[in-house]
Amino acid sequence: MLQILSLLVFGKLQDHYDRYHAWQWAVAYAGFTALWTLAATASLSGMLIGSLAVGLYAWGYFALLRRFADNLMMWLLVWVSGALLPFALTMKLLA
After folding, report:
1. How far is CA 85 from CA 14, 25, 40, in A?
2. Rounded distance, CA 79 to CA 65, Å?
3. Longest dimension (CA), the chain
4. Transmembrane region positions (predicted)?
């Protein structure tokens, strides 16, 4: 749940501070996730693989948010559904 909340916060921050590219926000989010994962587990390889996957997803998410910046309803839809999609897919795979 903290990752969903942090992705929503990063999404709003990158919309507010639009002078940085989407990939820079994705690297920052992947770094945040890597530090959070490293603090929770001791597996360095799992942390690297997970951070790479999360960083690539975040890059696409932030780029899509930038694309819909002028349409508020679409931006809100992408903002919420894009943050909940990884959680929903994880729950589907675990069920």
Report:
1. 19, 19, 23
2. 7
3. 43
4. 20-39, 45-65, 72-94
Q: Assign 42 a pLDDT band (cuts: 50, 70, 90).
A: low
CA Rg value for the chain: 14
**How far is it, in rounded angstroms, from Cα 88 to Cα 17?**
28
Residues 81, 68: Cα–Cα separation, whole Å: 14
How far from 1 is each of 8, 71, 85, 94, CA to CA, in Å? 11, 27, 12, 16
Please name the residue that has the structure tokens 């930038």: 66
Q: Tell the residue number behind the tokens 């508020």, with chain if given.
A: 72
User: Contact 25/14 with Cβ under 8 angstroms?
Assistant: yes
Q: What is the pTM of this model?
A: 0.87
Report the pLDDT value the prediction gives residue 37, as an integer from 0 to 100.
84
Phi, psi of 17 (to 5 degrees): -100, 85
